[in-house]
Design brief:
The protein is an alpha+beta fold. It has one domain. It is built from four helices and four strands; from the N terminus they run βαββαβαα. It has a four-stranded mixed sheet, sandwiched between helices. A hairpin with a 7-residue loop joins strand 2 (34-39) and strand 3 (47-51). The protein is globular and about 40 Å long. The model has no long low-confidence stretch (mean pLDDT 92).
């Protein structure tokens, strides 16, 4: 099940299409070059960066995924994660992203 963070981080290239992209992902429709930033599925990681179309696989219907960011392209997704991590570290002095974003 997909959950959306209340304060979603959006890359610059998706700002104008944000609502349509969120609707398409929620309705399990194919998107083009959109990447989701979600809390990590493995405890030793901080975030997962995945192509939004990956969420169409049956496994993700049952998995709990909290999306905290969206970006157009993998490079923008990596830049957005860097910005998010710097914000967490500057405000808390640690990298506890789950605590910071919930």
């Amino acid at each position: 099940m997909i959950q959306w963070a209340s304060s979603l981080y959006i890359g610059d290239k998706l700002q104008k299409k944000k609502d349509r992209v969120i609707k398409n992902i929620s309705n399990r429709k194919i998107t083009s070059d959109v990447y989701c930033i979600a809390f990590a599925s493995q405890p030793c990681n901080l975030f997962d960066i995945m192509n939004a179309n990956e969420l169409l696989f049956p496994h993700y219907k049952k998995a709990d995924i909290k999306i905290v960011g969206l970006a157009k392209g993998k490079d923008e997704a990596i830049d957005l994660v860097q910005d998010m991590l710097m914000e967490v570290y500057n405000n808390t002095g640690s990298f506890n992203v789950r605590e910071y974003f919930t």
